[in-house]
Structures are given as C-alpha cells and as structure tokens.
Amino acid sequence: LKRIMEIERTYQGYGTLLSIAGKPFKLTKIEDLRTPDRFTIRIPYCLRSVSWHILFNSDEPTIPPDFIFEEEEDFINLADLSSIHHWDPSNPQTLTDIFKELLHAYGLYHRKEALSFPSERLQFEMSTLAEVAGAEFRVSKDRTEIYCCVPLSVETSNQPDSSVGSIQLQFTFRTQDGRIPDKRLSHHSGPNATMWDNLLQGNKLPIWTSDMCCINYIPLVKDMLKDLVRDMMHRRNMTMHLIEAFGSALEYDGYNYQKISFCFDVPNLCFVATFSLPMDFPSKQPTITVAPVPIKTGKEKTLVNNSYPFSPRWTFPEMVRRIRVALLDMISDIKKLANE
Amino acid sequence: MEAEKELTPNTPEKIIFCVDVSAEVDSLDFAKTAKKVGMTRLDCIKTAIRTFVYLKQKMNSEHQFGLMYVTDVPTWVQDPTDDGELFLRKVNALQSRGDFKSLDLSSVFELVGERIPEVNTTTLQGANFIYRIIFIYSRSNVRPSLSQPWEPHRSGTVFFDALYLHSKQTKDNCPQDVYDFITEIDNGNAYHLENSTSLRKFYHHAVQLTAHPLQRTSQNSYKTSLDEHSG
User: Fold this and answer.
1) What would the pLDDT profile of A141-157 be if each residue is shown by its tens digit?
2) Whole-angstrom Cα distance, residue A130 to residue A136?
3) Angle, vertex CA A291, rays to CA B27 and CA A256, nearest 5
4) Which residues pair with B145 in a beta bridge?
5) Which of B1, B215, B221 is opposite residue A252, by nearest beta carbon?
6) Is residue A87 predicted with pLDDT exceeding 90?
7) How many angstroms away from the CA of B9 is the closest CA of chain A?
8) Which residues of A touch B193 (CB under 8 A)?
9) Is A279 exposed, middle or buried (0-12, 13-18, 19+ CB in 10 A)?
10) Of the candidates A312, A320, A329, A240, which has an alpha carbon nearest to the alpha carbon of residue B229?
11) What is the mean pLDDT of residues B112-118?
C-alpha cells in the first residue's frame, strides 16, 4: 500500500501537468476512502475528453493496475499491452508508458473504424486525412458520425511565443448522406487563448466549393489564420507607432489592437481622440473619433473622420504623420462642438 | 524608443469611486470658471465622473463601476456594475452631509475588502478583472488617518488613485498636509492629482484617471503631444 501511495502522490502532485504525447491530462481520485487506489484519468482527444478508470490493488502493489473503459470496451486487450508486461512500480514512468500505449491503441481503433465505411468518398477523405500528422479520428457509437481533428500550426515570424499555433480544425462527416462535412476551429487554452478567442470571434471559415475535399481545405484554413495573425501584427505595430508619436495612451485594446485613445490638452481645449483600426487595416484606413471634455448629460457629441488623406502603401510613420495633420485640422471644429 | 515598451492587455476593471461628501463639497470655488451658475464642487465631481464613465465604457464595455461615499466613516452605495446609467443615477443622488472632522482611510480599504473579497485573492495571471479605488477628497483642513498600513495583495491587481480638491492654503487650513498624506498611499503606480480653482484642469485630471493601470506610464511620465518630433 505504501508503494501505491507513493506512486499516487507522485501522480497527484503533477497530475495536471503531465502530458502524454504533448497533451495535458488530468488525473483525479475516485471518491471512496475505503479504496484509496482508484483513479480516473481524463485525456483530451479529438476535441473531447476520454475518461478511463484505473484500479490499483492496494494489497498487491507489484501487480499492474486494471482499467475500466466506459465506451469502446473492446478497443484493446490489456494483455496485449507491452507496458503492462513491463510494469515496474519503482519506475516513475511506468504508468505513463501504459497511458501512452493505451492512447495510441485508442487512436488506431478509431482510425480503423473511420476507414471502414464502404463509400468511395468517405474512403478518399479518411485515407487522405489519415496521412496528416497528428490527425485524430473518432467514430460515434452508432456509426452515424465521423469526427476528424487536425492540428494546425500557424507560423508567425513576429510572435515571440512559439505556442501561437495550437489550433485544431475539426471535420464532422455524416456517414448516411453525402453532405459536406461540418467544420469548426478550436484552440487549447494556453498562453495565447485570449488572442485566438478575439481573432476567431465571428470569423468566417473559407468557402467549401463544389469540388472541395478536406485535404485541400486544410491549407485554405491555414492561410486564413496566417492572414488573421498578420493583420493583427499590423494593428499592433500601428498601435506602437501611435504611442511613439502621441505619447501616453489612456487605454488601448490590448487583445486585438483595434482601438487606442489619447487625451490632448491644447490652448482652450481638452479632448479625447480615439483611433479605431479596422480588421483589414491597412487596406482600410483608421477612423478618428474625437470627444471634447467634459461630457455633459445628453450631450455626448463626437466628431468622426475616416476620409482624411491615406494610402495603404505608406509606411506606418507616414500614416501617423497624416493622422496628426488630420487631427490638427479638426481642432477648430472640436472647439465649436465643445462650446455648443 | 518609448513604444518598445511591452503592450499589455486592458483587463476589464472594477473601479470603486470613493467620494467625500463633507460640507466643503458645496463650495463654489469652481463657479468662476463653471458656465452654469451655482455649480458646486460636488456638481463638478458628478460631471467629472460622468465623463469618466462615458469614456471608459467606449474603451472597453466590460469595465464596471462601483460607489461609496465617506463622511467620517465609509458607506457603500453601489456594487460594481457595467450598467452606466444605473451607476450614474446613484452618483447624481450624492449629497453633502455636514461637517466631519476625521476619516480613517483604513476603513475604506476594509469595506472594499468586505464587499469585494476577490481583491484579496486575485492574481494577475488569468485575472478576469483588476480593481481600482478612486478616492475623491474635498477637505482642506482635515488630514485623514490610516490606522493600518495599506498593503494591497501583492498581485499587481489592486490600484489606488486620488483626486484632491481643496481651497487655497491659508493659515487656518492644511491642504499641503493632506496632499502629503495622500501621496503616501501608493502601490507604485498610483496617480495623485490635486486642484483648487481650475475647472478645466479638474476635468483634464478626470480624463487622465481613465488611463488603464496596467498600460499607463507612471504619473510623472504621463505626457501627450500633438507636436511633430523626430522618432
């Protein structure tokens, strides 16, 4: 029992941080004080979680654990697992090795299922997807749906954090009709989760044309994501140039860099200027919105300017120079507004 | 190049206004520059807060605003809310409540900790909100006290700013003492602003206070300019 408790403590201690094949998994204890040797492991797989129960025998710590799989009871014969035969309680990796093998077997089982449909089209799609590195398949119990998850890595030269690209594209096929697959993007919660939340919000996936197939669709999505990140970098860059030119910002959109506000105090006038950077900046020019201060009840008047001279081909410093000129030109109108 | 400073997210804020309602808020020292006849200091404070809320909501609609007032003790009025109109109705209902000769600022921090327990536990990593107390004080001859040192949870998520409105220094009052006291309350990134007669400057201060604590420069470095300069 002592040995089991030791293993238990080791895994409990960093259960949420351990990863199998790069995925974080969660190890929790089953609530039963009489048998402190049962755990549940949840492993993320194909945009869902799989839960397996692990049963140790506290009376016999040298015997490898047993497993209960809730679904797909027959995806593996435990006796076939080599890691079970090499069970060694003194090796801290011994349990992880079992999970690795189990996860691999689970993936293979579903991959085989996905490839077992006679339809020519499904055969084509599944076999081409099976070639994609890291692709995961899952077939529903009633065999009406096949899910395939493909990891996408998006390279961005400016991004200091290399884990930018933890995005998954999931296809859902209905096996009983020839409809085009459903598609959705998902990301692991990680350091850039908020960035992806903001970028993907309301974003439309590329159009699935009549002769499209999954393997050709994937690069279209990668390009779309690359464009989203590239455009975000442009806005971020522009935000920094605006700060460089105008000084201390009051507040800026620190997630998607779509907005930044400054307060200016000039002779006889104090006002707040907000620069809005559209998603397709610099193809579209920033909008300048100005509000004189103070804001009185029922008099929230602003001036908007998005037709000042602008060209997407200018450098960012040049754009900022032109924005400054536009703002200075607006001052007399802002004063009039303030005095109304 | 200043712009090489890291850009940071503008995490939504829960901003608690703590407004002094002692009798001095009825004074008319801003009246000379206020266009409206009879505008008291409290009226100007209300307009300043309205301006603040309007601007902040445009910057991020998730910011929330709460309210308390102080006499010699704090009284809670409104839990943080993103309903700007509701909040401003409560602000508009503030009235002066007489002369008070003391204020222990620790009671303010204590009340915030009671009403918003998360201020004592939130860490910056993965924080949904950061917290800010904006103290608007108006007594020229009552120096507040601090019975317990203010030690905000060392998380980088709690901030204190102050706006001090006062009469000119005479031999009967002590605005300099009061201001010195206020400037001691600083977590390293506080904005302490004071004003006695310029309404224009006061409104400018109110706007300066909209600066997001995680993104703004230190008070001493705060500067904006429309001049052309070499970058």
Assistant:
1) 899 999 999 988 776 55
2) 8
3) 120
4) B104
5) B215
6) no
7) 4
8) none
9) middle
10) A320
11) 93
Count residue pairs from A and B with Cβ separation < 8 A: 114
Give the per-residue pLDDT at B150. 87
pLDDT tens string B47-58:
999 999 999 999
Task: Please state, in angstroms and rounded to a whole number, the distance separating the CA atoms of residues A55 and A66.
Answer: 5
ipTM summary value: 0.93
SS3 state at A125? helix
Phi (first) and psi of residue B114, to 5 degrees: -75, -45
Task: Please tell me the distance from the alpha carbon of residue B203 to that of residue A265, in angstroms, as a whole number.
Answer: 11
Give the SS3 label for residue A223.
helix
A263 contacts in chain B (CB < 8 Å): 204, 207-208, 210, 224
Residues of A at the B interface, defined by Cβ within 8 angstroms: 194, 236, 239-241, 243-255, 257, 259, 261-266, 270, 272, 274, 291, 293-297, 300, 317, 321, 324, 327-328
Measuring CA to CA, how many Å separate A258 from each of A161, A201, A316? Answer: 21, 14, 15
pLDDT at A163 over 50: no
Does any CB of chain A come closer than 8 Å to the CB of residue B195?
no
Residue of A nearest to B89 (CA): A297
The pTM of the full predicted model, rounded to 2 decimals, is: 0.83
Alpha helices in B117-167 (DSSP H): none
Core vs surface per residue A75-84: b (16+ CB within 10 A) or e: bbeeeebebb
Q: How far is Cα A170 from Cα A136, in angstroms, rounded to an integer?
A: 9
